[in-house]
Specification:
Blueprint (H helix, E strand, L loop, with lengths): L1 E8 L6 E5 L4 E5 L6 H13 L19 E9 L2 E9 L6 E4 L2 E3 L2 H5 L4 E5 L10 H15 L3 H22 L8 H40 L4 E7 L3 E4 L8 H22 L10 E6 L2 E2 H4 L2 H23 L4 E5 L7 H11 L5 E5 L7 H5 L2 E6 L2 E4 L1
Parallel strand pairs: 3-14, 3-15, 8-13, 13-14
Antiparallel strand pairs: 1-2, 1-4, 4-5, 5-6, 6-7, 9-10, 9-11, 11-12, 15-16
The chain binds adenosine-5'-triphosphate and magnesium ion (MG).
Length: 377
């Protein structure tokens, strides 16, 4: 798939811009704080309906304005698709595909897939469990858009349960019938999330392992899903358990933790507490891997995401690279640029063109960003 046009209104530092893309290799160059990452953020938002660097939609609106609009023309399987997002709090954001309103997020994001690789991703292993869950959830939604609604349903139930627990104020003698209802719903939606995550990681690991082997000269990568419900699961083998098994464990664990949750007034276990970890030759990469080794893991994951999307939805995702080339050494840079291939539209931001081989620059469409304006050069 390709993005042909991007129009932004009141998005971050942009007033009103329209960019037309005629190449599958796009480069945004410009000094710091000009708006390069903001452009990638807008493209990414179309594919995930969230930002890779903030959790609040209002931050995306230009200071002093009360709405922002992202509009894009995409070509997918030779069909033109017009995507439009209006963010206008406190109203719900409005999503349109070819002029038609879409109430379900999945019906919108199923039109476009993107893999984003930022400098922040390089810190994925050392970052917080929150960061890793966000990475995992967004990566899944690129392949399985309906996941986004299931996740949002789970989060709503979790919030309601937490509110209820807060209202109990630690009162162990209160009638907790309502808590049982929230727990039942949390277990049903949460076990399904865990089941989908495990299957995704199993598929992703197969590809990531082989990429990792190539880049690292034969080191062995294993991904673990660290679950508060079913323990640590190595994603190298197809799991022996099904959704039912996870559901039963979920219910049992919630029952076991009931008192603790009432005392602490928050839900302490569930899909929202799970994490992912990475092992290189059986050693926890978070603790033992060098910075370079950790980067290789992240690079392998990103390349695996791209390949898995291609395998599952039969078209190439758009690849967004925010400043990462400068952070990778020659070997990893070449691996990344070679692996992209010609059919993947790639949008790269960089301060200048120094990090690019002449050969790569030949087919690139370059835009310079200066004072919130974008110039084609
Ligand atoms: N909601 C907003 N309204 C107006 N301006 C904003 C808003 N959010 C961010 N900005 C501004 O956008 C500018 C550009 O941000 P961006 O992160 O895209 O820069 P960049 O070109 O990627 O810089 P760098 O090379 O340092 O990464 C920043 O100066 C920031 O203050
Ligand atoms: Mg930037």
């Amino acid at each position: 798939m390709f993005i042909k046009k991007l129009k932004l209104k009141n998005f971050r530092n942009y007033n009103d811009i329209e960019l037309n893309f005629n190449s599958d290799k796009i480069l945004f160059i410009g000094k710091n704080a000009q708006g390069k990452t903001n452009l990638l953020e807008a493209v990414y938002y179309l594919s995930a309906l969230n930002s890779f660097r903030c959790n609040s939609d209002s931050e995306l609106i230009k200071w002093g304005e009360n709405f922002c609009n992202i509009n894009a023309e995409i070509k997918k399987f030779d069909i033109d698709i017009d995507l439009d997002i209006l963010i206008n709090p406190p109203s719900r954001k409005k999503l349109k595909v070819n002029g038609l309103n879409k109430n379900k997020s999945s019906e919108f994001i199923s039109n476009i897939s993107a893999v984003c690789f930022t400098v922040n991703d390089l810190l994925l292993l050392r970052g917080s469990p929150d960061d890793r869950r966000k990475w995992l959830d967004n990566a899944i939604s690129q392949i399985f858009p309906a996941y986004i609604e299931r996740l949002s349903k789970y989060n709503k139930i979790k919030t309601q349960k937490n509110n209820y627990l807060k209202n109990l104020k630690g009162n162990m003698t209160a009638d907790t019938a309502m808590l049982d209802i929230w727990n039942e719903q949390l277990a049903v939606t949460g076990s399904n999330l865990i089941f989908i995550r495990l299957n995704f990681l199993y598929e992703l690991q197969k590809i990531a392992k082989s990429k990792h082997k190539q880049i690292s000269n034969s080191e062995d990568l294993t991904i673990f899903y660290n679950s508060s419900i079913i323990g640590d699961v190595a994603c190298s083998e197809k799991f022996p358990f099904n959704n039912e098994y996870i559901l039963e464990n979920f219910k049992q664990k919630l029952e076991e933790k009931k008192q603790e949750e009432i005392i602490r007034a928050q839900s302490v276990i569930g899909a929202h507490r799970d994490d992912v970890s990475f092992y290189i030759n059986n050693n926890d990469a978070k603790k033992y891997a060098s910075q370079g080794q950790q980067r290789t893991v992240v690079l392998s994951l990103k390349l695996a995401e791209l390949e898995l999307i291609k395998e599952k939805i039969n078209t190439n995702a758009i690849l967004l690279l925010d400043d990462v080339l400068a952070e990778l050494d020659d070997l990893r840079q070449n691996f990344l640029l070679d692996a992209i291939g010609n059919e993947t539209q790639t949008i790269i931001t960089s301060v200048d063109t120094l990090h690019f081989k002449e050969e790569y620059l030949k087919n690139v469409e370059i835009f310079e960003i200066k004072n919130s304006e974008v110039y084609k050069i």
